[in-house]
Amino acid sequence: MGMLQxxxxxxxxxxxxxxxxxxxxxxxxxxxxxxxxILPMKDPRVQQNPAYMTVILLSRxxxxxxxxxxxxxxxxxxxxxxxxxxxxxxxxINESGSDAxxxxxxxxxxxxxxxxxxx
Length: 119
Hints:
5 helices, globular, two-stranded antiparallel sheet, single chain, alpha+beta
């Protein structure tokens, strides 16, 4: 049995355009803790708009995005495609502990995992 992987590298489909004008696409997301899921519920922004929970959650678990310090403002400013990509990655790694998805060959029905890391 190997060690538990707690950090997952990713490449955003579009990329975040930082204040420096650079495009930041490569980053790292860590597995969520119970605190990551519970503490944002106390935030007044979440109480006013429950959908904001995802913004806070992603700002906590995305530990690296190029040279940018990830804040709720950075997550708010992501392109929609990148926001959805990070939500999907969050769900995959926290449900299965892996960024791979299981699929099957349409011809022979062999099931196998595909790593969803994009380049």
